[in-house]
């Protein structure tokens, strides 16, 4: 299942890049994150509970940054294991300057396997789309927060 | 609504003074019903053992992947988990299962668990045994498998390219391929006035799902090295042929037991991988283990029916509508493993020309593996797909040439006076009257008023269509047909066993080799025995189910291939006849008369014409078993006889692929009337008739039950049931939430009729008849096509299953499907 999109941030490209490459900030954008471990600057893992039917789907996900060209491009592979589901995701983003702000073009190729996958794309697509919109909203908040922190530190 | 056109000829109750005309042909009360209706049936899951463990399989979420590692340590840490089994262990402890094919299929290595690779979603990679079923299921989730995903192959035609190969040992996805060429197709083509070409037809993947899923309870006896398997295998003799060599033991080490089985339909013929895994676990853990298949497991990883694509169908037709034969390229998708395959590559040839007098047939047949669930013989196995082709040919040709589907059938049907009729490939259609069956079906749906009803429906904005499905249920296999696929196989003929004894208190006890799954074997057996021994069916005790220890089975024992009425009851009749002979001998020794003077009637052996000189059966049983001093020393009887029935078969001519592949041919002619909403594609079956000719009907009500059940399976397959996979090989219809099987309320108004054309080849004139539902699929396709457009117009129905959305698509773009058909007129 491929999902793509574009998002504009009212922040400089360097700030957006910093947020997208800071695992601890990224953790705050993830839906239902319960714990988060950073192994090094390219690998981290998380335990999440994705809202899905009764009780939600618990999954442990390993992330690995597989490519990057600071400050414009990065590619990430995520592999998740849960009861009744395996997720493989390759995602990448391109950042370009747009006046004072930053434009992000992103894409993700999500593969769900296991019994959950049998629900089919007609069921999973809306769930993925909903989660993506939550992630982007949270990312926006993180960028604003980083931007504000940057501005205040500049003020000092 | 159900109506029977003709009432049973014989009364159910014989009044005093009225002549008893025998129980064969009467709908006597079923012996099985009391225990089943009262919930006293014993299914494998009712069998429990002290300290038994429950098995759950950890299954692959990938359709195709290399297994890098399997770690069961976390599962084993759970309190209450007794043990596990992995593919690596299986590869050491067993040999691959015997393959029926020649290479490349012969080189496939199939084990009880996935070894090295997984090849479909649900492929079992490990098994966990625990104290409870739920714990085993939870523990199976803790089995950690590291997979390396591989490209997925889901299309039969793509499989032919071998760009992605499932079985490295075979080095090809092709299991078996061959060309069948009978008559002179090129001459027929030259002789034709019209040549109709159909580019593509596709028979969808579905399954006649049984009510009870599969499973077994397995005990291992360490002292004797024998396994006892209480399970749902519907053909254990053949199951043992697969399992014993794999387990490296003799067949005597496998004892199969079953009492009641909740339907099989062929799904339960290829359980040898799961049962073998349970045997290994029972031995490894030294405790009984029970595996109960969940519905999702059954849909995902047990078996489906064969999916088949027909390409380049070419039909030579004379100006008067006579069809001279056909040629076709068939690609059969058997899923990840050819477990009972490639037998499906020849079974269709039992009905090569369908119901028609077609003499020139050329079939280029290839079977391939894909990353889907394996297939197994599914009610109407392989013939259903082929007969759907023959019926689509008839209706598409009729549509394109402006011929009447009824008239064109009658012109091409084998005629009643032509039986026994030899087909171009040497099969012998034993008896039948197809045209008469069709007339009855048409009468039952009110065919004479169909045009009025069409106009009336149009006035309501509906499209009305009528369709006919004519099929043959070929029964009693000649296993020699397997040699046409692989001359090295040493299988031919068929056999079945029954034992009948007269016990000490006069009890008549029968054991069967068959493994009934709801086909009323106890009842019909009792009818046959009662008629021969001169007693009531109530006096005949038929052991329920199957047990290897009864020694009443042979190599091909089981319930499959529409044959119990022939092989099963043939064995029963043979055994009962022998017992009757022994009873007469014993009575003649007691009375000092000739055995020819003795008759068996009303539970007695008596001297003809002298009813006072009569010995009750109890006396006969007691004399031989407990009071035999003084009997003549040369009286060689046991009152306990075993009979093996062997149908009259020859080995086929392998060079010509020619021979009698099956003994009987029951007929089913179905007619269907549908109303379609042209705005939405939603349709309703408004009239339905099923006419069956299975020769002598032993028990009309049971026959009618089979007709209803088979029709329901067919209508499910025609309207809703498809195993749909997404592009990654995930099954999107893994249980009854997404896969709708017809309920009683889904069934249309249905009328049934019958004709009895007795078979000249069988002991009772009867024919097997349980698998004839395919006619419903054909009738539905024809009715939809008829509703959507007639006489060379409107869309072509090219798929076997047509849910509402497919009908809507046909309505939206009729020209697209019309591209599939071309007509060359000379």
Notes on the protein architecture:
The complex is a heterodimer of chains A (156) and B (826). Chain A has 156 residues and is α+β, with helices and mostly antiparallel strands. In chain A, 31% of the residues lie in helices and 46% in strands. Chain A has 3 helices and 7 strands. Chain A has helices at 13-20, 23-27, 121-155; strands at 2-9, 33-38, 43-50, 57-69, 73-82, 85-98, 101-113. A 7-stranded antiparallel β-sheet of chain A has the order 1-7-6-5-4-3-2. The longest helix of chain A is centred in the last third of the chain and has 35 residues, at 121-155. Chain B has 3 domains: 33-41 and 495-645, Aldehyde oxidase/xanthine dehydrogenase, molybdopterin binding domain (Aldehyde Oxidoreductase, domain 4), CATH 3.30.365; 44-150 and 214-292, Aldehyde Oxidoreductase, domain 3 (Alpha-Beta Complex); 178-207 and 303-335 and 342-370 and 381-480 and 652-819, Aldehyde Oxidoreductase, domain 4. Helix content of chain B is 27%, strand content 24%. In chain B, strands 4-6-2-13-10-11-12-23 form an 8-stranded mixed β-sheet, with helices on both faces. In chain B, strands 8-16-15-14-9-31 form a 6-stranded mixed β-sheet. A 5-stranded mixed β-sheet of chain B has the order 1-30-29-28-19, with helices on both faces. In chain B, strand 29 (683-693), helix 19 (700-719) and strand 30 (750-754) form a beta-alpha-beta unit. In chain B, helix 7 (236-247) crosses helix 8, helix 11 (383-401) runs parallel beside helix 20 (774-788) and helix 16 runs parallel beside helix 17. The radius of gyration of chain B is 28 Å and the shape is globular. Chains A and B meet through strand 6 and strand 7 of A and loops of B.
């Amino acid at each position: 299942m491929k999902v793509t999109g574009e998002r504009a941030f009212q922040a400089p490209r360097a700030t957006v890049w910093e947020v997208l490459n800071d695992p601890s900030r990224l953790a705050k954008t993830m839906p239902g994150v319960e714990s988060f471990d950073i192994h090094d600057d390219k690998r981290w893992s998380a335990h999440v509970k994705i809202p899905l039917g009764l009780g939600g789907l618990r999954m442990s996900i390993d992330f690995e940054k597989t490519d990057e060209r600071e400050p414009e491009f990065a590619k990430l592979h995520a592999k998740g294991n849960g009861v009744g589901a395996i997720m493989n995701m390759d995602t990448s983003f391109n950042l370009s300057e747009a006046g004072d702000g930053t434009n992000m073009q992103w894409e993700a190729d999500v593969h769900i396997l296991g019994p959950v996958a049998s629900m089919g794309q007609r069921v999973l697509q809306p769930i993925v789309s909903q989660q993506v919109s939550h992630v982007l909203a949270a990312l926006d908040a993180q960028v604003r927060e980083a931007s504000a922190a940057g501005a205040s530190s500049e003020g000092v | 609504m159900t109506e029977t056109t003709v009432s049973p000829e014989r009364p159910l109750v014989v009044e005093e003074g009225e002549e008893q005309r025998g129980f064969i042909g009467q709908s006597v009360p079923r012996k099985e019903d009391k225990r089943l209706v009262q919930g006293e049936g014993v299914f494998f899951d009712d069998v429990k053992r002290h300290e038994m463990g429950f098995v759950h399989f950890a299954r692959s979420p990938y359709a195709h992947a290399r297994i890098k590692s399997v770690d069961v340590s976390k599962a084993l840490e759970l309190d209450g988990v007794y043990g596990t089994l992995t593919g690596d262990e299986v590869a050491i402890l067993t040999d691959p299962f015997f393959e029926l094919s020649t290479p490349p299929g012969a080189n496939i290595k199939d084990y009880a668990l996935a070894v090295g690779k997984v090849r479909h979603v649900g492929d079992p990679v490990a098994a966990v045994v625990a104290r409870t079923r739920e714990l085993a299921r939870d523990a199976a989730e803790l089995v950690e498998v590291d997979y390396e995903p591989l490209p997925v192959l889901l299309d039969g035609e793509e499989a032919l390219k071998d760009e992605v190969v499932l079985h490295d040992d075979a080095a090809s996805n092709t299991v078996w391929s061959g060309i069948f060429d009978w008559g002179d197709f090129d001459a027929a083509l030259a002789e034709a006035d019209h040549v109709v070409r159909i580019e593509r037809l596709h028979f969808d993947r579905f399954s006649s799902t049984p009510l009870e899923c599969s499973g077994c309870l397995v005990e291992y006896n360490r002292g004797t090295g024998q396994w006892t398997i209480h399970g749902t295998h519907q053909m254990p003799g053949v199951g043992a042929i697969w399992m014993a060599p794999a387990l490296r033991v003799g067949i005597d080490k496998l004892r199969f037991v079953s009492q009641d089985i909740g339907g099989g339909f062929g799904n339960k013929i290829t359980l040898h991988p799961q049962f073998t895994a349970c045997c290994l676990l029972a031995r490894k853990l030294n405790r009984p283990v029970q595996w109960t298949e969940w519905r999702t497991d059954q849909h995902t990883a047990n078996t489906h029916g064969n999916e088949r694509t027909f390409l380049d169908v070419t039909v030579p037709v004379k100006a008067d509508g006579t069809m001279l034969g056909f040629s076709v390229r068939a690609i059969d998708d058997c899923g990840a493993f050819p477990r009972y395959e490639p037998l499906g590559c020849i079974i269709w040839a039992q009905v090569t020309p369908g119901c028609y007098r077609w003499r020139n047939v050329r079939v280029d047949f290839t079977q391939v593996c894909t990353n889907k669930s394996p297939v197994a013989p599914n009610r109407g196995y392989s013939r259903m797909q082929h007969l759907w082709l023959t019926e689509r040919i008839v209706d598409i040709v009729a549509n394109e040439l402006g011929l009447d589907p009824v008239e064109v059938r009658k012109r091409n049907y084998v005629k009643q006076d032509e039986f026994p009729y030899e087909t171009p490939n040497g099969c012998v259609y034993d008896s039948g009257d197809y045209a008469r069956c069709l007339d009855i079906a048409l009468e039952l749906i009110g065919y004479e008023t169909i045009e009025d009803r069409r106009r009336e429906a149009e006035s309501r904005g509906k499209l009305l269509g009528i369709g006919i499905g004519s099929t043959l249920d070929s029964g009693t296999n000649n296993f020699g047909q397997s040699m046409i696929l692989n001359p090295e196989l040493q299988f031919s003929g068929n056999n079945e066993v029954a034992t009948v004894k007269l016990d000490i208190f006069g009890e008549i006890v029968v054991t069967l080799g068959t493994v009934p799954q709801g086909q009323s074997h106890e009842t019909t057996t009792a009818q046959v025995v009662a008629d021969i021994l001169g007693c009531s069916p109530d006096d005949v005790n038929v052991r329920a189910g199957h047990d290897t220890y009864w020694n009443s089975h042979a190599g091909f024992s089981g319930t499959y291939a529409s044959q119990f009425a022939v092989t099963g009851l043939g064995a029963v009749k043979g055994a009962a006849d022998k017992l009757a002979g022994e009873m007469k001998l014993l009575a003649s020794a007691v009375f000092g008369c000739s055995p020819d003077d003795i008759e068996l009637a009303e539970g007695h052996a008596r001297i003809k014409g002298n009813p006072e000189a009569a010995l009750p059966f109890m006396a006969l049983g007691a004399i031989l078993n407990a009071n035999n001093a003084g009997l003549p020393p040369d009286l060689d009887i046991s009152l306990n006889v075993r009979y093996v029935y062997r149908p009259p078969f020859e080995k086929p001519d392998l060079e010509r692929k020619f021979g009698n592949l099956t003994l009987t041919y029951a007929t089913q002619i179905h007619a269907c009337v549908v109303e379609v909403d042209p705005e939405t594609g939603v349709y309703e079956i408004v009239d339905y008739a099923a006419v069956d000719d299975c020769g002598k009907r032993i028990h009309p009500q049971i026959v009618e039950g089979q007709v209803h059940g088979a029709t329901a399976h067919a209508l499910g397959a025609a309207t809703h049931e498809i195993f749909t996979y997404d592009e990654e090989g995930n099954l999107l219809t893994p249980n009854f939430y997404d896969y709708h099987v017809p309920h009683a309320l889904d069934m249309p108004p249905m009328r049934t009729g019958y004709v009895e054309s007795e078979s000249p080849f069988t002991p009772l004139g009867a024919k097997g008849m349980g698998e004839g539902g395919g006619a419903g699929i054909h009738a539905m396709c024809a009715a939809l096509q008829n509703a959507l457009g007639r006489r060379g117009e409107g869309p072509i129905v090219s798929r076997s299953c047509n849910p509402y959305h497919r009908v809507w698509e046909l309505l939206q773009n009729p020209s697209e499907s019309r591209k599939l058909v071309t007509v060359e007129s000379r």
